[in-house]
Design brief:
It is a single chain. The protein is mainly alpha-helical. The chain has one domain. The protein is 78% helix and 0% strand. It has helices at 2-22, 28-36, 40-65, 73-87, 95-107, 111-140, 147-171, 174-180, 184-197, 204-229, 236-249, 261-272, 277-304, 309-322. The two termini are 17 Å apart.
Length: 326
């Protein structure tokens, strides 16, 4: 319980901190006017293309799980919607734990398999958005507002995901197999982790890379549509910068729907593109209201429709683990 309270506290603190920075010297009426004047056609287009993005993500996750089990696409899709939806309303990306638990309850797949595949999925997402941010900054060439801060974000993201990639490669290697063999109690679970990460050392990884590239085409287009809805037309390099900054901002602890961190990331990227900070904040708010909120409601509906045991199992298990012994 103390851990959960700490996570929530950090998330709330980050929300207020980044909101304060994003709204610094921004006229609230300008944000309200941008939201009020948002074009519903472009908002609708963003929602539709975001749905395509989620469908492609479910396809990729199914491919990651294929070496372990041939799981029907509808089951994979429901589990993915639950995880992504709960990520939008829970701190510290706890939706990923719920996604693995949901899979365990609905299909019987080991939590270890589920979490390992999710780590690989997020690893490729992270590497991709870091590359997008780097390419956007490179193509922009000319000095622009916030370029230095965005470069700092790029370096931090590169180091973080580079470290995760090296750790995953190490875990899937023969040295780790020999180390784990000395601890029989860990062998079974670590063997599953290693088998999951082995995809990084096979030709099957090319399929995952190809699907990931395809995924980020509609993802970038959805963001372009949202910004277009509030009156700004982004160029190619500026769209890549927005995609990278917005995606990396979701890794920072925050409140529901990445409140605060997403506003800050959009404000940085839109100012980099030459637009007003208020427009960026309005576009981020549209993303939360029109993309993330409906996703959270869909996740809640799936769980309420006969699958609430996944929620109950996680909460009860965590409460037992948090209970003092002795």
């Amino acid at each position: 319980m103390r851990v959960r309270v700490f996570q929530i506290g950090v998330g709330v603190a980050c929300t207020f901190f980044f909101l304060a920075i994003a709204l610094y010297r921004v006229e609230p009426r300008a944000v309200g006017a941008a939201l009020a004047g948002a074009n519903p056609f472009w908002i609708g287009a963003a929602v539709l293309i975001y749905a395509v993005n989620l469908a492609l993500r479910a396809w990729r996750w199914q491919a990651l799980l294929r070496p372990v089990a041939l799981i029907p696409y509808p089951i994979v899709g429901r589990a993915l919607l639950v995880g992504y939806g709960l990520n939008a309303i829970m701190p510290a990306r706890l939706g990923e734990l719920f996604r693995a638990e949901f899979f365990k309850k609905t299909y019987g797949l080991s939590r270890v398999w589920g979490l390992t595949s999710i780590v690989i999925e997020r690893l490729f997402d992270g590497i991709t958005v870091v590359c997008c941010l780097g390419a956007g900054l490179l193509f922009a060439a000319a000095a622009k507002p916030n370029a230095g801060l965005l470069i700092d974000v790029l370096v931090t993201g590169s180091v973080a995901f580079g470290a995760v990639l090296l750790a995953a490669l190490y875990l899937s290697g023969p040295i780790m197999s020999r180390i784990v063999g000395r601890f029989p109690g860990l062998s079974a679970q670590m063997a599953m982790v290693q088998q999951g990460f082995e995809i990084l050392r096979t030709w099957r990884i090319l399929e995952v890379v190809a699907i990931t590239v395809i995924i980020y085409l509609p993802d970038a287009l959805a963001l372009w549509f949202l910004v277009k809805a509030v009156g700004v037309t982004l160029g190619f390099s500026d769209t890549l910068v927005l995609l990278g900054a917005a995606s990396l901002s979701t890794l920072v602890p925050s409140g529901p729907a990445f409140l605060g961190t997403l506003q800050f990331a959009y404000a940085l990227a839109i100012e980099f593109a030459g637009g007003a900070r208020a427009i960026g904040i309005a576009a981020a708010t549209l993303a939360q209201l029109c993309l993330l909120l409906p996703l959270a409601l869909i996740a809640a509906g799936i769980l309420a429709h006969g699958s609430g045991t996944a929620l109950y199992a996680i909460f009860t298990r965590r409460q037992v683990n948090d209970r003092p012994t002795g």
